[in-house]
């Protein structure tokens, strides 16, 4: 209901259970979701690996949100530098 109200789609992968394997359509859907998930997980991996973003350093929603946005900007700048093939020491 919440998804339809906000014009969103379900992006959760489906899981097989004992005695009930996934159908061909479910496997195809999971494969498509895996491609998107891979791209998103790479960004979070970069945040964790290069910018030590395992948990928030500050208290308070405003400060934590600001820290998250700044680190996300850093990831985007690093991606841009890599696309331009500029050596970056990060």
Automatic annotation (TrEMBL):
Domain of life per record: Bacteria
One Gene Ontology MF term: transposase activity
InterPro entries: Transposase_11
UniProt-listed GO biological process terms: DNA transposition
Domain Transposase IS4-like, residue spans: 7-77
PANTHER family: TRANSPOSASE INSH FOR INSERTION SEQUENCE ELEMENT IS5A-RELATED (PTHR35604:SF2)
Protein name per the record: Transposase IS4-like domain-containing protein
Provenance organism: Neisseria shayeganii 871
């Amino acid at each position: 209901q919440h998804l339809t109200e906000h014009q969103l789609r379900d992006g959760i992968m489906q899981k097989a259970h004992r005695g009930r394997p996934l159908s061909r359509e479910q496997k195809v859907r999971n494969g498509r979701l895996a491609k998107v998930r891979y791209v998103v997980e790479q960004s979070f991996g970069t945040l964790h690996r290069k910018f030590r973003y395992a948990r928030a350093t500050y208290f308070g929603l405003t400060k934590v949100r600001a820290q998250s946005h700044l680190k996300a900007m850093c990831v985007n700048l690093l991606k841009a530098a890599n696309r331009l093939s500029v050596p970056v020491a990060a």
